[in-house]
């Protein structure tokens, strides 16, 4: 949930969607994202749409937030009509969702259930900072219907956590995983960040070992992105910290894949590993495979049937709109056929399930042949008509997608 909004056409104040978006709704997987835009402090590298208490200003409060989101859930039902639309996945992200009382998160989830109905076995995830939960809050979340939790671990090294401005101790994520398991969470993810300035290969190995040892069934590992306008970017510009190096990041990726694979975690998306198919994040898979989702909360981006829209960014503007009975949607765009093909290629080529060769534009076939010759695509699936990235291909995924789209 990046903090800047793209351009687009103004969205209608009713939130109404074009007919093209509504046709076929219910035939594709349907998910709900709930953005919770609050953090205790802002990490120096983070560009997400989130506010500390000091930054929030008047017109919005954490206390009233759940009621405001429930209003948007009701609006979603009116906009999407009365058709059967059971929810396959729900994902609460942030910000720090677990800064809100668990009862508030459960109340929002209950509103989604009562308006739409959760499909039996629906995946319901919340993100959490490791220091923002305890056994009692985890139990309440579990009883409230959450069955998956994703902790922002980032690193097991104190000096790395310090550069990232993280507030938890190196041992806290493992304790949080244990508490989540004891509370009955079926699925637990740990998010890691690599190539932070000052991190060595050994630090990264130690972080991976600690993450594996903690016993999650899913690990996400992202290279640190230096976002414009963040404190991290300013520190790098002033020469206080070195710029993360692409070659170092590539080496760290190889280390991650090696250690995770040894421990039984298999990649299923370039930055995501899981111990089994059931442990894959179904909500993210819905994003990556052209599903429909309604995203509630300030700055949240929704997608239904080729129409994308995004809400006003500030929590005060968001609350004001909903209090006035007006849709919080700020702008929208209807994707044309070309946009949809490009998006599908960009997302599906990053998946272990691959991208069908038959769907590659004729003009891009020489690029595909070159990628196979350079060892970027697995030969066996290729023979069966699928482009699946090799390990080397995963390192060069972005460049390959760019080449395929010219
Ligand atoms: C935005 S956070 C929300 C969840 C929670 N507040 C946390 O920090 O774990 C989701 C994930 O995005 C990661 N993230 C945010 N900014 C990033 C950046 N610039 N580079 C890499 N990962 C980033 C966070 O570290 C975190 O694991
Ligand atoms: S806690 Fe998470 S969302 Fe909040 S500032 Fe840090 S990375 Fe961003």
UniProtKB/TrEMBL annotation:
<keyword id="KW-0143">Chaperone</keyword>
<dbReference type="GO" id="GO:0005737">
    <property type="term" value="C:cytoplasm"/>
</dbReference>
<keyword id="KW-0963">Cytoplasm</keyword>
<dbReference type="InterPro" id="IPR004559">
    <property type="entry name" value="HemW-like"/>
</dbReference>
<dbReference type="InterPro" id="IPR034505">
    <property type="entry name" value="Coproporphyrinogen-III_oxidase"/>
</dbReference>
<keyword id="KW-0411">Iron-sulfur</keyword>
<dbReference type="InterPro" id="IPR006638">
    <property type="entry name" value="Elp3/MiaA/NifB-like_rSAM"/>
</dbReference>
<dbReference type="InterPro" id="IPR007197">
    <property type="entry name" value="rSAM"/>
</dbReference>
<dbReference type="GO" id="GO:0051539">
    <property type="term" value="F:4 iron, 4 sulfur cluster binding"/>
</dbReference>
<dbReference type="InterPro" id="IPR013785">
    <property type="entry name" value="Aldolase_TIM"/>
</dbReference>
<keyword id="KW-0349">Heme</keyword>
<dbReference type="InterPro" id="IPR058240">
    <property type="entry name" value="rSAM_sf"/>
</dbReference>
<feature type="region of interest" description="Disordered">
    <location>
        <begin position="1"/>
        <end position="20"/>
    </location>
</feature>
<keyword id="KW-0408">Iron</keyword>
<dbReference type="GO" id="GO:0004109">
    <property type="term" value="F:coproporphyrinogen oxidase activity"/>
</dbReference>
<dbReference type="Pfam" id="PF04055">
    <property type="entry name" value="Radical_SAM"/>
</dbReference>
<keyword id="KW-0949">S-adenosyl-L-methionine</keyword>
<protein>
    <recommendedName>
        <fullName>Heme chaperone HemW</fullName>
    </recommendedName>
</protein>
<comment type="function">
    <text>Probably acts as a heme chaperone, transferring heme to an unknown acceptor. Binds one molecule of heme per monomer, possibly covalently. Binds 1 [4Fe-4S] cluster. The cluster is coordinated with 3 cysteines and an exchangeable S-adenosyl-L-methionine.</text>
</comment>
<comment type="similarity">
    <text>Belongs to the anaerobic coproporphyrinogen-III oxidase family. HemW subfamily.</text>
</comment>
<keyword id="KW-0479">Metal-binding</keyword>
<dbReference type="GO" id="GO:0046872">
    <property type="term" value="F:metal ion binding"/>
</dbReference>
<feature type="domain" description="Radical SAM core">
    <location>
        <begin position="24"/>
        <end position="266"/>
    </location>
</feature>
<dbReference type="GO" id="GO:0006779">
    <property type="term" value="P:porphyrin-containing compound biosynthetic process"/>
</dbReference>
<keyword id="KW-0004">4Fe-4S</keyword>
């Amino acid at each position: 949930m990046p903090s800047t909004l793209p351009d687009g056409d103004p969205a209608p104040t009713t939130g109404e969607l074009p007919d093209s978006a509504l046709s076929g709704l219910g035939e594709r997987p349907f998910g709900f994202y709930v953005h919770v835009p609050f953090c205790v402090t802002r990490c120096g590298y983070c560009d997400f749409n989130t506010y500390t208490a000091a930054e929030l200003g008047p017109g919005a409060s954490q206390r009233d937030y759940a009621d405001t989101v429930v209003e948007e859930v009701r609006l979603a039902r009116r906009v999407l009509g009365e058709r059967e639309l059971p929810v396959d996945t729900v994902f609460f992200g942030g910000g720090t969702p677990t800064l809100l009382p668990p009862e508030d998160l459960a109340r929002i989830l209950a509103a989604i259930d009562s308006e739409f109905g959760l499909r039996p076995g629906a995946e319901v995830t919340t993100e959490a900072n490791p220091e923002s939960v305890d056994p009692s809050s985890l139990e309440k979340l579990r009883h409230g219907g959450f069955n998956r939790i994703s902790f922002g671990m980032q690193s097991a090294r104190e000096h790395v956590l310090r550069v990232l401005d993280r507030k938890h101790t190196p041992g806290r994520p493992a304790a949080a995983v244990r508490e989540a398991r004891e509370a009955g969470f079926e699925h637990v993810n740990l998010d890691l960040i690599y190539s932070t300035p000052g991190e060595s290969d050994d630090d990264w190995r130690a972080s991976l070992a600690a993450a594996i040892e903690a016993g999650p069934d899913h690990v996400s590992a992202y290279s640190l992105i230096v976002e414009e306008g963040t404190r991290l970017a300013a520190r790098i510009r002033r020469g206080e910290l070195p710029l993360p190096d692409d070659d170092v990041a590539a080496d760290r990726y190889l280390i991650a894949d090696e250690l995770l694979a040894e421990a039984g975690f298999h990649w299923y998306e370039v930055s995501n590993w899981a111990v089994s198919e059931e442990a894959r994040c179904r909500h993210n898979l819905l994003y990556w495979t052209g599903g429909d989702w309604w995203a509630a909360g300030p700055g949240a981006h929704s997608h239904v049937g080729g129409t994308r829209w995004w809400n006003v960014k500030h929590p005060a503007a968001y609350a004001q709109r909903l209090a006035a009975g007006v849709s919080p949607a700020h702008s929208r765009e209807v994707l044309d056929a070309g946009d949809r093909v490009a998006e599908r290629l960009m997302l599906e080529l990053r998946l272990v399930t691959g991208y069908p060769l038959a769907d590659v534009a004729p003009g891009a076939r020489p690029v595909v042949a070159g990628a196979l010759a350079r060892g970027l695509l697995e030969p066996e699936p290729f023979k069966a008509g699928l482009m699946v990235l090799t390990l080397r291909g995963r390192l060069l995924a972005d460049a390959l997608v760019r080449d395929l789209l010219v």
